[in-house]
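Pasting as-is:
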Amino acid sequence: MKKIKGALALLAVLSLAGCGAGSPSSGTAESSPEGTSGSGAATALEKVEVGVIPIVDVAPIYLGVKEGIFEKEGLDVKLTLAQGGAAIVPAIMSEQMDFGFSNVTSMIVARSKSLPLKMVAPGGSSTGDTKADFASVMTKPDSGIKEIKDLVGKKVAVNTLNNISDSTISEAVKLAGGDYKKVHFVEMGFPDMTAQLAAGNVDAMAAVEPFVTISEADGNVPIFSNYAEPVDDLTVAVYFTSDDYIKKNPETAAKFARAMTESQKFADENPEKAKAVLPDYTSLEPEVIEKLKMPRYYTEVNEASIEKIAEISLDRGLIEKIPDLTALLPSK
């Protein structure tokens, strides 16, 4: 238990929202090795830098680098850890990074504000199982909250306000027949949520792995997964770049998309190998990793789920109008 709780302090930079505050870390990066030709001579690889967040969602890209999938496409990948998309998006726009990782709500909001960003490959997706997903709304066993509509009038911790967690939770409450406007969301970091729940400062918490597993170890119980419902087969996060980068580097963007898609497929087919790379970029202990519920790593962005998230974002006032989703979604 001490090791599990110790992970909280070591993982303070975790952020799923993809729009939390933070700047890129200068100390944590990984590159693929130089390739070799059939004769054994070194083959120059094209260097690309990718901004990622230290969460389970990005395991496939670390695995793809380790397995040589990006090298096969001629890419030398540098992975730079950031606290959230607030650091990654401007790094992409200013060409300090080539590709980045973020959740889909942040992408929709950014595109609605005329930021020329474009998805190039999927990231993590919901398992679709409301009782066994990598994201879960948790509460204390004696809270009296047994189902979704019981969240009405309650305080719910989310890591970022006006983003994917609170909008999907409020939509689930609405569909369950509750008054979603009476759910009170409180912003705090994932590592702080369990303690605030124990102290009674919030009634429930919107957690993602590893904090679902850590919270369960403290005796808390899941209510439902806001990623598994109210949106079917939700693509939660994606890899993206700018329109300008794609225009200037179409072949590189295509290579990255192919390698990322293959890495997603490999990780989804080899979940234990995906778990095995987590110590490369997180401080999780083995007993925590063993119990984690991993995302699904699909090879395509579920366009219908993006459309639904855009509709929810519009209804909640996150955006003034739905942006051109064709321009945002990966090219076919």
